[in-house]
Amino acid sequence: MEERANSEGRIASRLAAIRIVVVEPSHPGNIGGVARAMKTMGLGDLALVRPKRFPDPQAQWRAASAVDVLDAVRVFDCLDDAVADCGVVAGTSARSRRIPWPTATAAGFAAQMASAGLGGRPMAILFGREASGLTNDELQRCNWHVVIPANPAYSSLNLAMAAQVVCYELRQALLAASAAEPAPAPAAAQEWDRPLASAAQMAGLYGQLERVLVAIEFQTANTPHQAITRLRRLFGRLGVDETEVAILRGILTHVERALAK
Amino acid sequence: MEERANSEGRIASRLAAIRIVVVEPSHPGNIGGVARAMKTMGLGDLALVRPKRFPDPQAQWRAASAVDVLDAVRVFDCLDDAVADCGVVAGTSARSRRIPWPTATAAGFAAQMASAGLGGRPMAILFGREASGLTNDELQRCNWHVVIPANPAYSSLNLAMAAQVVCYELRQALLAASAAEPAPAPAAAQEWDRPLASAAQMAGLYGQLERVLVAIEFQTANTPHQAITRLRRLFGRLGVDETEVAILRGILTHVERALAK
Hints:
By secondary structure, chain A is an alpha/beta fold. The first copy, chain A, is built from 12 helices and 7 strands.
């Protein structure tokens, strides 16, 4: 429990060191959308470079409960100032560029950042204008280009959607790194509420089921062996829990009682 | 090159078999946002259940160049109709439920679908209302619950953002599976001998089952709603095929006939 809280705290502090920088956004609604996307993934540092309209009620509206992120926004006149204190600067881009650049998918980039760390400095991730993205000049200020693998026939993610995917991948990568790190990882694949039925309980179920199938004349009407085999396969496939066996047997018992009347 | 085109085609056809179903969306802008999110990841089959406002110019505006997805939208009065032909039905949910259900993260779910295949039927992924998500009743119609790991302090993704993340993960998983695959063994996780039962076939089974439970006085003897919920979960997680549904319904019919004597 404590370990879990520690790991959550480590992830939170790593995410706090990531700055999202949006360059010349046109629509204030998108700024609000970015703020909300960030907060859902645990990020909170948003910088804007020459936004067309900000602050704006539409930004507030789309931010929903992430108004605290909006309230903390810093607005810059030039990109260099917005990223001045950052170590790694990454630029998101849909297009491939004339000059090849260190490029990673959102997932690959996030995994690398999660494992390598940020060298004690904030990291900036840049998003460009709704219509035209980042300029070549801006992209050349970046250590990395980050692409979101998308439909080749239509790869134009909305600005806030792109921010959502990138922030999501950053959180995922930190969760994965944190799970891989410490003790043997509780995996906790599925905390089921009831124990799985034992083989004996299942045998009891199948025995009663066969008796009922005879009583209701299902066995004569169909190819009996096939049917029970398929039912065994059905229930065997994923594991029936004790309560489920109890329910199924309760039904069969009621059938038997109803027939005896 | 040709291989790449083939793989792209395979991915496209797998994505085409995935239906996004939005239940009672309030804001037409979100419908447009979902359409755009889908198209950027190569999905195109969008169904709406009782949308508050649709069609609507705001949906068009937010869809940007994904108006073809909007044009093809089908609107349904009830959820059952929207998923009638589907095999796997997954419901997105932020909350954890009283009765644990087969649950996966968006990434885990996508990976599983990519490797296992869909048994020849469309798959539906349900998204709920902006304010309140899917109801418990709607979630109980799902084989799987899908969660997006988010900031525990603020996990409320906008509807279209959630759709973006899920669609993104589906595409990522298919890309990964296609890269891992090449020549040999198509993973063949599941070569089932019969097609999975459709949601309509399963609804028919549950309907008959409930009638029989009343007829045999099982419903009054136990806490009825819990029992049928648990049975839905049981069969939902097994992935019942058509022959198995036929067997189960055959049994129920024999019970009904035996009682009528």
